[in-house]
Fold this protein.
Amino acid sequence: MKMIVCIKQVLDPEAPPASFKIDPLSHKMVLPAGIPPVISSFDECALEAALRIKDTTGGKVTVLSLGTGLLRNVVKKPLAMGADNLVLLEDEAFDGGDSWSTAYALSRAIKKIGSFDLIFCGRQADDWDAGQVGSGLAELLDLPSITVAKKIDITKDKARVERITDGGHEVVEVDLPALITVSSELGPPRYTTLEGIMTANQKETTILKPTDIGVEASQVGASGRRIDLQKIFQPIREGNCEFIVGESLEEAGANLAMELRKAKIL
Amino acid sequence: MSEYNNIMVYTEVAGEALSALSIELLGCGRKLADDLGQDLCAVLVGTKVSSLAQAAITYGADKVYLVDDPLLKDYQSDSYVSVLEKAVTQAMPQILILGQTAVGRDLAPRLSFRLGTAAVLDCVQLTIDPDSKLLLQTKPVYGGNALAIYTCKSYPQIATVRANVMSHLEPNTSRQGEVIIIEAALDPSAVRTRILEKVPESIEGIKLEDAKVMVSGGRGIGDADGFKHLEELAGLLKGAVGATRPSCDNGWVPSTRQIGLTGKIVTPDLYIAVAISGASQHLSGISGSNTIVAINKDPDANIFKEAHFGIVGDWKKVLPAFTTKLKEILSRA
Ligand SMILES: Cc1cc2nc3c(=O)[nH]c(=O)nc-3n(C[C@H](O)[C@H](O)[C@H](O)COP(=O)(O)OP(=O)(O)OC[C@H]3O[C@@H](n4cnc5c(N)ncnc54)[C@H](O)[C@@H]3O)c2cc1C
Ligand SMILES: Nc1ncnc2c1ncn2[C@@H]1O[C@H](COP(=O)(O)O)[C@@H](O)[C@H]1O
């Protein structure tokens, strides 16, 4: 089973909400220097899905990431978790893309990587929450796609996927090759082991530039965008909470009940 | 791009009727169509759905593109994308609006790539820019830590819209409209996925989206047993129990109870958040609640920025006393 997992380096989405600030010059979201970037959380789930298949049926997991300023200890984490090799699309030209230009560059890189049975993406990236690259990639590569998966079973040349729907889930079968986007309901991704970290550095990392995947710099990153960001701003949270107190916490609890009654909320 | 005209809304069917979100989208589409002086079209896809065309008109559509075919019984990307591609190519709308549902979030991106245009998902506001006449698409980004406004240069401009952020029109059964039938003409072998089974959520009691009162628990609840206290309170208030992602990921509650950006969006009258820090991704799902009550031992927890009433302290002390007092009050009423 040859698998490709697309992962994105993002600002830590779990950083305290108050620490997210918009840089007025670049209009980009920034976090304080002490909070390092991470792999987008659903991408770790996507990787976990691939590694579980590798554990049971064997195979090779290639991790693909596009970006600039990719920190090696971040993007190499998948190798420490058990992936086999890393392909980085790393160039200034890839910066500032949208779902379209990102999916386009990834599709070209995947063509370059060659044959595969399964591609995994996260359901959406933790930064822009766009939720499109997986489906877009499938469209560009003319693959069937199953989105928002929580369980994947492989039988020979087929995948049986549980995909989350609004009213529950459905079990969908697809012939390989196919693309699957993964959600956190899959279950928590594995931890890196000390052994994993030690072997990660011996695994192969390839860096690809636009010319390596046969694209013009003007087709990728910010120049290849199809949607324009007109404005980004932070909603102001009012913070007019009425704190209920009492002699003890138990009394505070009782007072809350009376307060809600008085306000005709209950 | 002048050949592109009109606004199109993709309507979904829930049971025997148009879904509540589809009706909201028709209201939103009607407003945009009026702003631009254009028509509102609905596109209705499925098996035996033709009787709902009139409902789309009743809720604001001028035209309904109807694709009714036995092969369209269940949503599958391949069949629905190809049918929508047909409808769009025929109707040539400037704007296509879908719901941010399991269907919409699968269909919109794939369709936009097929059509060579772009989509913006999970919008909370759609307006027309008075100068450029482009659609301004506002959506939460960074888990709700910011809002972004996008425009798209190519047609149709495709957006999915979150539930409960738009208002529907009052139904008007005397509205007249045109129904245009499109043949699906699907090749079954071009549908590369097969649905083997549909497993409905096993929800005991009230559906989260319908609950007037919600009691939700976060990581600070500590274990599955802790949630029993929340269930007791929810039962008393005829409400439902919800949870944050960590509570679901830890298996304390089924993942179908997750509230937030990637869980369910709820709009109860009262939302009681117990031991929840108030991450933006969670707040995304509850900001439509009328009243939010928070119990958290950390006075600086972000949830208190969103809450109307709060208690700083250990929920294990606060909640049982709150529940007992409520019982007393309610039995007196
Ligand atoms: C892309 C993305 C999507 C996400 N989608 C969702 C989503 O849909 N829904 C969601 O909920 N999360 C979502 N998350 C996760 C989110 O970022 C937060 O991690 C999560 O909401 C935090 O859950 P929590 O409040 O239960 O846990 P924590 O943040 O760990 O908070 C626990 C709180 O409990 C309090 N506490 C502890 N013990 C007690 C006690 N005894 N009494 C009182 N208070 C106590 C603590 O003070 C703390 O504030 C998403 C994350 C990402 C990156
Ligand atoms: N720059 C990137 N590099 C690698 N994979 C990406 C990148 N951007 C998005 N993806 C993949 O596509 C998924 C959806 O991203 P998005 O459409 O941006 O929300 C992510 O979860 C990743 O799996």
